[in-house]
Write a structure and sequence with these properties.
The chain is mainly alpha-helical. The chain contains four helices and no strands.
């Protein structure tokens, strides 16, 4: 039972790292949203999204992961980051900077 606890603790630590990385990704996407707003670009960038999906699927295969699951996860991550870019917080921040 001790091994299970130790392994679960490692999983919990990895989950925290994943969340920190998601937070960093969201922060960067917020900055991208500010630039898009400033220059009048659309939030949606389907060619870029497709590049992201292709890259993570390829990397998943290299790492021995199921690429369809990884792609599904990344669809959610991209949706979250698109929402961050489109949020009023991005536009309010941009208005405050001008």
């Amino acid at each position: 039972m001790e091994n299970i606890r130790q392994l679960r603790k490692k999983v919990d630590e990895l989950d925290e790292q994943i969340l920190r990385f998601l937070c960093q990704r969201a922060d960067i996407c917020r900055s991208i949203g500010l630039l898009k707003d400033k220059h009048g670009f659309s939030i949606q960038d389907f060619p870029r999204e497709n590049d992201v999906y292709a890259h993570v699927k390829e990397k998943a295969v290299e790492l021995g992961l199921d690429s369809s699951y990884v792609e599904a996860i990344y669809h959610q991550i991209v949706n979250m980051c698109s929402a961050v870019q489109a949020s009023k917080n991005v536009r309010n921040k941009n208005s405050m900077e001008n």
